[in-house]
Write a structure and sequence with these properties.
Elements (H helix, E strand, L loop, with lengths): L5 H8 L4 H4 L4 E8 L2 E6 L2 E5 L6 H14 L11 E5 L5 E5 L9 E5 L8 H6 L5 H12 L4 E5 L5 H8 L9 E5 L11 E5 L16 H8 L6 E7 L2 H10 L8 E5 L3 H13 L7 H11 L2 E8 L3 E11 L2 E8 L4 E3 L8
Parallel strand pairs: 7-11, 7-12, 8-9, 8-10, 10-11
Antiparallel strand pairs: 1-2, 1-6, 2-3, 4-5, 5-6, 12-13, 13-14, 14-15
Helix pairs in contact: 1-3, 8-9, 9-10
């Protein structure tokens, strides 16, 4: 009997939205129900004329994606799916009745062509002098935190800044779900995802902290973490920047650079490691060197809206966005 191609089945169930998976400019596909689909093109959300035949078929589609990754979804036991397709596209789904009207699914797509620093400079994401500062910070092995809202371009900016990591360095990435696409020759990607590859022989989940311990035995020059989403990943980041491996980068949801540090403090404290808040706060400010805030500006696009250095425990802003252009607030460090 011929083996079943699980991804061919996934393609079959994804048929209603398959054209949008490869369409230029599409960065997000938002399925609000079997007959209610939107896409995001260059920051603009628009409804499209496609649908699954029924709610049952949409649920079957979500279940098939889960099956292909050795995950399980069901309304009773596991109504939420957080996974990725073979091309790296990230899939999030929620089954009814937790999605009150109908099952829903969101697929975040990666650019078909990887952006370069020159591409982002041309689009106005940052200014030339800001780019010079970023290059100095990465090459100077500074620990960088990129903050912003969902879809602001945090991971995209991290990927671009990673271009300045010297080619001879060995980079280990640690993520809960793989999103980073670092275009360097010596990269090892590790993932603590909730599927068979993230469970050891005893059936125990492998955490980001476990992956960090393992990474330290892999002779890394740089450790790059995916998004800090919870207490565990925040604690893992703090451990990473305290292992003697400088030049660590990660991303975090926050409203501004100051809030990014406060949120990192709070998440790391809630990890339950017994350390007092004041000690963690001091550790964060002693080891995070640069915070970059990004935002999706309406009718303009993605912009770096604030760049700050941590100076004696405080955020010292070098550049900000005034709504029309980047403005230098103070003279930046040279990291020489």
């Amino acid at each position: 009997m011929a083996a079943i191609d699980v991804w061919a089945l996934v393609d079959h169930y994804l048929a209603p939205i398959k054209p949008y998976l490869s369409m230029d400019g599409v960065t997000e596909i938002m399925v609000n129900g079997h007959d209610d689909v939107y896409i995001e093109v260059n920051g603009d959300k628009r409804k499209v004329d496609t649908r699954w035949a029924s709610s049952f078929e949409l649920r079957s589609c979500i279940e098939q994606v889960a099956n292909a990754l050795d995950q399980k979804v069901s309304p009773e036991m596991a109504p939420k799916l957080d996974a990725r397709l073979p091309d790296g596209a990230r899939v999030n789904a929620l089954l009814a009745p937790y999605a009150a009207r109908d099952h829903c699914m969101t697929i975040r797509l990666f650019p078909k062509v990887r952006l370069t620093p020159a591409d982002m400079l041309e689009s106005g994401t940052f200014s030339p002098e800001m780019l010079d500062f970023f290059q100095d910070a990465v090459e100077g092995e500074k620990n960088i935190l990129i903050s912003g809202s969902c879809g602001a371009g945090k991971t995209t900016l991290l990927n671009v800044l990673a271009n300045y990591i010297p080619d001879g360095e060995r980079i280990i990435t640690i993520e809960d779900t793989c999103e980073l696409q670092i275009d360097k020759p010596h990269v090892v990607t590790t993932e603590a995802a909730a599927h068979a590859y993230g469970v050891n022989s005893a059936g125990t989940m492998i955490s980001m902290a476990d992956l960090l311990k393992n990474a330290l035995r892999m002779n890394p020059d740089r450790i790059v973490l995916g998004e800090i989403r919870d207490a565990e990943s925040a604690d893992t980041f703090l451990k990473a920047i305290n292992t003697g491996h400088s030049g660590t980068m990660t991303t975090l949801h926050a409203n501004n650079t100051v809030d990014a540090l406060v949120r990192l403090d709070s998440l790391a404290t809630s990890a339950g490691q017994g350390r007092p808040f004041a000690a963690i706060q001091s550790e964060v400010r002693a080891n995070v060197n640069v915070v970059i805030q990004v935002k999706k500006v309406r009718n303009i696009g993605r912009r770096v809206v604030e760049v700050a250095e941590i100076d004696e425990g405080r955020c010292k802003t070098f550049w900000s966005w005034d709504g029309k252009q980047h403005v230098r607030v103070s003279a930046p460090s040279t990291f020489t």
